[in-house]
Every structure is written in C-alpha cells, then in structure tokens.
C-alpha cells in the first residue's frame, strides 16, 4: 500500500466508526466535515486503495451503489428490501464451512459473502400501520408478481 495519508486515515477512521455501510457519496459527505477541501474523486480513489489493501470491504449490491464496511472480520449482512438499509449479522450458525464447499466443488475457496434479505424493523412497523403485511414479499423469500 502507498503511505497512509491524512485523507486515507480520515476515510478509514470514518468507516470504522460508521456502522451504516455507507456509499462513497455518504463517506464523502462525512469526511468533508473534517477535510472540507477533499474531492469526491479523492474519496473514491482512497476507498479503492483501502479495499485493495484489505483494510475495508467493498460490498457490491447488485445494481445499487457499492457500500463500504470498515469491519473486515468475517461476518454476514442483512438488507432491507424496502429501504435498502444494511446491517451486520453476527449469527454463528450462518457460518459456511469452506472445506466442505471446496470438497464438493473442487474449487480452492478463499472466502464467501452471505447476505440475508428481509424487512427492517422500521419498514415492518410502517407496513403494519398501513395494513400491508409483507407487501409484495412473502415469507418464502420469493418476490410475488
């Protein structure tokens, strides 16, 4: 990795404090409070460098803007299908046995990403007050037409 510049250090500190898994634009908005002259391009370049060096994780959201996680320890995420909120899951039973996957597929497995989907408590409360239990998403996890 290149040297730890002040900009890079502030971005890293911000991601380690925030638990919201912010987008690059959200990181930029927070970092700008401390470094008013930083550019959005600088934030993007530093996020890429920190990801490349393994100091943060980039979470690709399948068509949505990438989010960033300052916690590089193995853990899963849960995403709200309504508001796109993203939270950490620290359920030990969610662990995938990499050796079993390697044995079954013949792949050399380096890691995995597991994301659960559902409705966050706030969206569930909104749906309950609107009288729409589950909305277009049923209990099976399948989207209804």
Query: Beta-sheet strand percentage?
Result: 15-25%
Helix coverage percent: 25-40%
Detail the poorly predicted runs. 137-145
Tally of contiguous helical segments: 5
Class from secondary-structure proportions? alpha+beta
Q: How many whole angstroms does the radius of gyration measure?
A: 18 Å
List the domain count as a whole number: 2
What's the arrangement of strands in the largest beta sheet?
Answer: 4-3-5
Mean pLDDT: 86
Q: According to CATH, what is the topology of the largest domain? A: Arc Repressor Mutant, subunit A
Number of strands: 5
Describe this structure in words.
The model is unreliable at 137-145 (pLDDT under 50). The termini are far apart. A hairpin with a 5-residue loop joins strand 3 and strand 4. The protein has 2 domains: 1-73, Orthogonal Bundle (Arc Repressor Mutant, subunit A), CATH 1.10.10.10; 76-134, Ferric-uptake regulator, C-terminal dimerisarion domain (Dna Ligase, domain 1, 2-Layer Sandwich), CATH 3.30.1490.190. Helix content is 37%, strand content 17%. It has a 3-stranded mixed sheet, with no helix packed on it. The chain has a two-stranded antiparallel sheet with strand order 1-2. With 145 residues, it is of the alpha+beta class.
Structural topology:
Elements: H1 6-17, H2 24-34, H3 40-52, E1 57-61, E2 64-69, E3 76-80, E4 86-89, H4 98-105, E5 115-118, H5 121-130
Parallel strand pairs: 3-5
Antiparallel strand pairs: 1-2, 3-4
Helix pairs in contact: 1-2, 1-3, 2-3
Offer a concise description of the structure.
This protein is α+β, with helices and mostly antiparallel strands and 145 residues long.
């Amino acid at each position: 990795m290149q040297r730890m510049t002040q900009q890079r250090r502030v971005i890293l500190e911000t991601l380690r404090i925030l638990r919201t898994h912010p987008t690059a634009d959200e990181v930029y908005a927070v970092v700008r409070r401390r470094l008013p002259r930083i550019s959005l391009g600088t934030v993007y370049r530093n996020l890429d460098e920190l990801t490349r060096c393994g100091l943060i994780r980039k979470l690709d959201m399948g068509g949505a803007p990438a989010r960033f996680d300052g916690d590089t320890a193995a853990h899963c995420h849960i995403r709200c299908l309504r508001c796109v909120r993203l939270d950490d899951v620290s359920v030990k039973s969610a662990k995938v046995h990499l050796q079993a996957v390697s044995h079954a597929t013949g792949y050399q497995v380096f890691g995995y990403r597991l994301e659960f989907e559902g409705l966050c408590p706030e969206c569930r409360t909104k749906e309950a007050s609107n009288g729409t239990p589950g909305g277009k998403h049923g209990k099976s996890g399948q989207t209804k037409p």
